[in-house]
């Protein structure tokens, strides 16, 4: 939202409310209320919209869920944005001033990311040393069946001019920056140039990457030199059949060990993105995955229960097979609920396996084993493990 605010024409005052950090002021004087949300928060967003609409305020919605399910979202808002808002946001606001706006704003093609403004830092809610969030690219050239990125961004990777990204990177006072790119290794040549450009600012950063990152020495070298401390790596599964079944066969499981080792050898920690519940996953997958992660000395991991988000090829396939168990979007949280019928186990077994994975991964013996084996960035990875473990135990015992 601070980024969208930066694209708002002069003459408008923008207030940014982040519900993670503060309560909504329901009496606020506003002409337009804009709401962004992921699928699990859809009903909550609709409730907010209804309360503001009751007061006669124009409610505008955009973001992943709106783009994936515009017919549904359109019933709850005066205006919806399908896809990216660059250029259209300004157009809507101008029309609003003139009193003649449309119900739907939709791009006809993926917008260029040249000359986009920097996000408005005065609207960020975190003002400590971790407050640097930025993106260099948008989209991903791959089309994994379970991922919403291809659908959201017209299957097109776009890159910001490197000088513009470097200037925004340098503009943060904080030392730690997150690149919220969907896949920072989507264009390896661009990434290397970017890393060279940001090296002089001597900050630390992390981002998300596909397996390709770990196969390219120059990429890792340039990343490490520019201050990369950790890569979130989309490993997803240690079952090759599962990877092939969701159009992610480029993840060659037999290479995982070597790739992780390779990344570690450049002093970069690995956070593994793991998903349980693919069609070839049997109940053994949980223990085998944990054995693998511990043996490979992966510093951190994020476990997800496979979730067929609406609008994705995975959702369409499961719907055609009659396997969607719930359309309650609150349950599309990938952490607490199973919303489809898994093939090789029951939904209960999947949930129990997911819980086992978290319990085991964030147990003291596992933390000790993983971190002592490959002590990359221990000062960074140990606090993260403790924080993730604490958060897991808090949610598990709620
Ligand atoms: C950062 C992030 C998070 C952060 C959010 C931090 C924060 N406070 O913002 C955290 C880690 C908390 C998070 C959590 C989750 N996330 Co997330 N996250 C992202 C990520 C990587 C970047 C989001 C972002 O800032 N993008 C940059 C902005 C500029 O892009 P944008 O949102 O698309 O916005 C553009 C348009 O959509 C439009 N727009 C968006 N909103 C609005 C609103 C208005 C009013 C208008 C006019 C226009 C507009 O304008 C923008 C400019 O063009 C995205 C991937 C992505 N590329 O978006 C995944 C993503 C959005 N997340 C995803 C998922 C699955 C989740 C989780 C479910 C994961 C989990 N298992 O817990 C949770 C759900 C949280 C919840 N309760 O809702 C999915 C979305 C799936 C879905 N259907 O909703 C994505 C797409 C990742 C993926 N590969 O599939 N996430
Ligand atoms: S590589 Fe990652 S970001 Fe790209 S489509 Fe696959 S899961 Fe999504």
CATH-derived topology of the largest domain: TIM Barrel
The SSE string, one letter per element, is: HEHEHHEHEEEHEHEHEHEHHEHEHHHH
Radius of gyration: 22 Å
Spatial order of strands in the largest sheet: 5-8-9-10-11-12
**Which molecules are bound in this entry?**
cobalamin, iron/sulfur cluster
Q: How many helical stretches? A: 16
Kindly give the count of domains: 2
User: Which regions have little confidence, pLDDT < 50, spanning 5+ residues?
Assistant: none
Q: What best-fitting shape do the alpha-carbon axes yield? A: globular
Number of strands: 12
Characterize the structure shown.
The chain has two domains: about 1-105, Rossmann fold, CATH 3.40.50; about 120-395, TIM Barrel. It is globular, with a radius of gyration of 22 Å. The protein has 16 helices and twelve strands. Strands 5-8-9-10-11-12 form a six-stranded parallel sheet. Strands 1-2-3-4 form a four-stranded parallel sheet, with helices on both faces. A two-stranded antiparallel sheet has the order 6-7. α8 (about 190-200) packs parallel to α9 and α12 (about 285-295) runs parallel beside α14. With about 400 residues, it is an alpha/beta fold. The longest helix is centred in the last third of the chain and has 19 residues, at about 380-395. It binds cobalamin and iron/sulfur cluster. The site of iron/sulfur cluster has 11 residues, from α6.
């Amino acid at each position: 939202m601070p980024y969208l605010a930066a694209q708002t024409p002069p003459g408008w005052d923008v207030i940014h409310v982040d519900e993670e950090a503060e309560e909504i002021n329901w009496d606020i004087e506003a002409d337009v209320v804009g709401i962004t949300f992921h699928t699990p928060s859809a009903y909550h967003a609709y409730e907010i919209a209804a309360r503001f609409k009751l007061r006669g305020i124009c409610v505008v919605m955009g973001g992943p869920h709106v783009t994936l399910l515009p017919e549904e979202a359109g019933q709850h808002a005066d205006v919806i944005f399908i896809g990216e808002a660059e250029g259209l946001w300004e157009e809507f606001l101008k029309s609003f001033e003139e009193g003649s706006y449309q119900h739907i704003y939709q791009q006809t093609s993926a917008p260029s990311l040249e000359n986009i403004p920097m996000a408005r830092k005065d609207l960020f809610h975190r003002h400590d040393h971790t407050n640097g969030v930025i993106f260099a690219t948008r989209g991903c050239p791959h089309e994994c069946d379970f991922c919403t990125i291809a659908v959201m961004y017209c299957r097109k990777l776009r890159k910001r001019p490197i000088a513009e990204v470097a200037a925004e990177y340098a503009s943060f006072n904080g030392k730690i920056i997150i690149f919220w790119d969907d896949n920072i290794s989507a264009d390896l040549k661009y990434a290397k140039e970017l890393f060279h450009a940001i090296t002089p600012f001597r900050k630390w950063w992390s981002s998300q990457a596909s397996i390709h990152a770990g196969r390219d020495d120059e990429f890792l070298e340039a990343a490490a030199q520019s201050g990369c401390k950790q890569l979130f790596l989309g490993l997803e599964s240690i079952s090759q059949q599962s990877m092939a079944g969701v159009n992610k066969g480029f993840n060659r499981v037999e290479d995982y060990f070597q790739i992780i080792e390779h990344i570690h050898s450049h002093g970069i920690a690995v956070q593994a993105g793991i998903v349980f519940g693919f069609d070839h996953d049997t109940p053994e997958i949980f223990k085998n995955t944990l054995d693998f992660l511990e043996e490979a000395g992966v510093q951190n991991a994020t476990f997800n229960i496979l979730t067929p988000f609406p609008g994705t090829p995975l959702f369409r396939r499961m719907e055609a097979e009659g396997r969607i168990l719930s359309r309650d979007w609150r349950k599309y949280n990938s952490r607490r609920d199973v919303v489809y019928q898994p093939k090789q186990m029951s939904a209960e077994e999947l949930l129990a396996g997911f819980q086992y994975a978290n319990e085991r991964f964030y147990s003291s013996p596992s933390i000790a084993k993983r971190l002592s084996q490959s002590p990359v960035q221990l000062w960074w990875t140990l606090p993260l493990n403790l924080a993730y473990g604490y958060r897991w135990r808090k949610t598990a015992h709620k």
